[in-house]
Amino acid sequence: MTDQAPAPYAGPKRVLSGVQPTGDLHLGNYLGALVKFARLQHETQTFIFVADLHALTEWVDPKKLKSNVREITAAYLATGLDPKVATIFAQSAVPEHAELAWVFNCVARLGWLDRMTQFKDKAGKHKERSSVGLYTYPVLQAADILVYRATHVPVGEDQRQHLELTRDIAQKFNHDFEAPGFFPLPEALTQGPGARIMSLRDGSVKMSKSDPSDASRINLTDDADAIAQKVRKARTDADVLPEKVDDLAGRPEAQNLVGVYAALAGKTSQEVLDEYAGQGFGAFKPKLADLAVSVMGPIGGEMRRLLADPAEIDRILGAGAERARAVAAPVLADVKRIVGYWAG
Ligand code: AQP
Q1: How far apart are alpha carbons 206 and 28 in whole angstroms?
Q2: Among 48, 63, 167, 228, which residue's beta carbon has the most beta carbons within 10 A?
Q3: Residue 122 annotated as catalytic
């Protein structure tokens, strides 16, 4: 240990993101997160983890947690993440995340956490019965990101507020410990047509793993029949599709289905309307179902193939954790020195 001033971050653009192993991944996770991971890995250093510590914030059956981690890893691989290119690992295999989270618990302010809308949504009316972990979830998330000094975080719209909190924590740490620029202020990468996919049963709430209705989402593991049936039964209105995107305002279900089509086809919503304006959902839904089956069907098949060899998934996660720790450990060592830990 030395008393030298900590060096500001001057490294490359570095991407980090993760998904909780809390159930079946769905179309929203795929379009809002996984598709972006696969693209970004070829542009810059990319760290993608399975957030099994975050999963503990709500009850999860211990017998299922490991297999859930493997399932998310299989989804990463099936959607194009390459373990030779991106660093893929489980959060619990890199203890530096939890260690840094403690320091950040002492940097973040209660008032900041009180404003987090995701906690309010998830805790609902029974806030006092929620785990403390659910409340401090965004602090651990800040540690996940900053322990790699990541600069860019591809996530769906719902995570934007947590990213703001991460920036606040980085800024306060740098300021309080006189370590200017030590932590970069990471940016959320939320752009793109899949940033906010809504439930198929209610266009006003986001598609979510924890929605009790399986019909509300298309799971990555759904077969062609299930996908087609869910699209057919998706809630809509009686009007035809309009000519202009602005005219979808006030029609959340229609807006969502057009957005889903656009994201899956790699088009804009306006391009979709150029093709389908004047048509009703009776005509549009079968086209959307065919498209969803053609994109999602092969992913489910590839996941099943990968999951048949859990030892290979574990090997990939083990190698990824080693690479991740090689980056995280020196950052944590610097943090300990900066804040004055007795033990380095
Ligand atoms: N509906 C969505 N549209 C676009 N992106 C979404 N994401 C989640 N839902 C949508 C993005 O998926 C990534 C992984 O999310 P997560 O599993 O870590 O947690 P989450 O945001 O809480 O996802 P869910 O599916 O809604 O799970 P539950 O029901 O457990 O809360 C994130 O980048 C997220 O933005």
Answers
A1: 8
A2: 48
A3: yes
Rounded CA-CA distance 237/77 in Å is: 37
Among protein residues, the one with the nearest Cα to ligand 1's atom 23 is 208
Q: How confident is the model at residue 158 (pLDDT cuts 50, 70, 90)?
A: confident
Instruction: List every span in the chain annotated with CATH 1.10.240.10.
Output: 214-305
Q: 72 CB contacts (<8 Å, ≥6 apart)?
A: 19, 20, 21, 25, 50
What's the pLDDT at 166? 98
What are the structure tokens assigned to 301, written together?
Answer: 């098949």
**pTM attached to this predicted model:** 0.92
Distance (Å) from CA 18 to ligand 1 centroid: 10
Range 277-292 average pLDDT: 96
Ligand 1 residue neighbourhood (C-beta within 6 Å): 19-20, 22, 28-29, 32-33, 51, 155-156, 158-159, 194-197, 206-210
Q: Note the CATH number of domain 214-305.
A: 1.10.240.10
What CATH number is given for 14-196+310-339 in this structure?
3.40.50.620
- Higher-pLDDT residue of 332, 158: 332
Looking at the chain, the domain(s) classified CATH 3.40.50.620 span: 14-196+310-339
- In this predicted structure, what is the pLDDT of residue 5? 67
Of 209, 267, 287, 336, catalytic? 209
- The protein residue with its alpha carbon nearest to ligand 1, atom 26, reads 208
- Cα 215 to its chain centre, rounded Å, is 21
In this model, does residue 1 exceed pLDDT 80? no
Ligand 1, atom 33: closest residue by C-alpha: 155
Helix (H) or strand (E) holding 331: helix 310-339
pLDDT, mean of residues 86-95? 98
- In the numeric block, which tokens belong to residue 218? 């298309």
| Whether residue 2 has pLDDT greater than 50 | no
Interval between CA 33 and ligand 1 midpoint (Å) = 8
